[in-house]
Design brief:
Shape: globular
Radius of gyration: 21 Å
Helix content: 55-70%
Order of helices and strands: HHHHEHEHEEEHEEHHHHHHHH
Strand order of the largest sheet: 1-2-5-4-3
Number of helices: 15
Number of domains: 4
Distance between the termini: 50 Å
Number of strands: 7
Largest sheet: 5 strands, mixed
CATH architecture of the largest domain: 2-Layer Sandwich
Length: 372
């Protein structure tokens, strides 16, 4: 790690557990920039403020503006969330809140987690009706964007984004997908955890399922567009708050069935050794995974959340084929680094990435030919 990365990790580790630092040897501006690409800006801004670290006038203004905007966004999101859950409930639809504000409630303060989307899971039989209700509640005529995929329906109005899910994740392996679908139905229907938003009880997933789901979501990000440390902060803080409620047999079965022991233990190494989660609060932690954890962390620093820090994302070519060559090069570099951690995963990612790129190129070429 660079000097800036080491200072950032030190601040992040202290911030996550509500501690302060005496001094900072790196420019606060550099730390805030790094926090931005890792989606942990609220944590870093909070500890800079609480520790009394000197910042320049411009950055101080940016911090104040961000905090005000963050507080406002959380309040608006919680209000919308409670409105949608009530509307769905009146129609006999039970929605379960995934990730997002449910995890924000585990932090020392709600505002230490950057505000994201509202993800609501409903049973597949209620999906179409739920989409209509949410669209109506969000004033459908003024919605800026609507997108539907194989797993969810997305609506965007202003800065608020709501996703209605009937599947939690779509996995590449058919066997993994089938097992996790069964696991999801159980974890999203029994032993749900109730939280309160604006006086409205909102359900979140069962703890054991949630612990595995947060991990799996992070793992899919790592294999795909890129993983930010915010995801692992979420996981660590959730386990810190809810570890006593876990059924370890549920998690163990999922790790066995989906062959994810090495991935879990490597991520666990980051949560414990890097972020400071007590080892006894992390199921199946082993110090033997330390090297894998460090190598994953290096990849995360190189890419940033959703790959925003990758070189080709910062210097994108304007021509279509030039961008394709950039993407292939970036994929090759990513897989080269993963090769030393998870060889079989690296090969799978490369094969899938190249296949997907060829398909997109074929579609684009046919489209140009048809309209040429």
């Amino acid at each position: 790690m660079t000097k800036t990365e080491r200072a950032y990790i030190d601040l992040l580790r202290h911030a996550l557990w509500g501690k302060t630092v005496d001094s900072c040897s790196v420019s606060p501006r550099e730390l805030v920039c790094l926090a931005n690409v890792q989606k942990t800006r609220p944590l870093i801004l909070d500890i800079l403020t609480r520790s009394g670290i000197a910042v320049d006038e411009t950055l101080r203004g940016e911090i104040e503006n961000f905090i005000v905007k963050s507080v406002s966004s959380h309040l608006l999101q919680d209000r919308l969330l409670s409105t949608l859950v009530l509307a769905l409930r009146r129609s006999g639809i039970n929605a379960v809140l995934l990730k997002g504000e449910g995890l924000a409630n585990c932090y020392p303060s709600l505002y230490l987690r950057e505000c994201g989307d509202i993800d609501l899971y409903v049973d597949e039989s209620d999906y179409k009706k739920a989409c209509e209700i949410v669209r109506e509640e969000m004033d459908g005529d003024n919605i800026l964007e609507e997108l539907e995929s194989d797993k969810h329906f997305l609506l965007r109005k202003g800065e608020m984004i709501v996703e209605i899910h009937h599947h939690t994740l779509s996995l590449q392996s058919e066997d993994d997908n089938a097992f996790f679908e069964t696991m999801s139905k159980d974890g999203l229907s029994r032993n749900l955890v109730q939280l309160n938003f604006c006086g409205v009880p909102v359900y979140t997933p069962a703890d054991s399922f949630n612990a595995f789901y947060i991990f799996l979501h992070a793992w899919e990000h790592f294999k795909g567009r890129g993983l930010g440390l915010r995801h692992l902060c979420d996981w660590a803080i959730f386990l810190h708050v809810r570890h006593e409620h876990l059924d370890l047999d549920v998690i163990k079965e999922a790790l066995d069935k989906m062959d994810l022991w090495k991935a879990w233990q490597a991520f666990a190494g980051i949560a414990v050794d890097i972020l400071g989660l007590p080892a006894d609060e992390m199921p199946f932690y082993t110090p033997k995974a330390a090297l894998r954890a460090r190598r994953i962390l290096n990849i995360m620093f190189r890419e940033g959340d959703l790959g925003k820090f990758r070189h080709h994302m910062l210097h994108r070519r304007k021509d279509y084929f030039g961008r394709k060559i950039q993407s292939l090069w970036a994929l090759s570099i990513k897989c080269f680094h993963i090769l030393f951690i998870f060889p079989d995963v690296a090969v799978s990612i490369f094969r899938t990435g190249v296949s997907g790129g060829i398909n997109k190129l074929h579609i684009s070429t046919n489209t140009e030919a048809n309209y040429g």
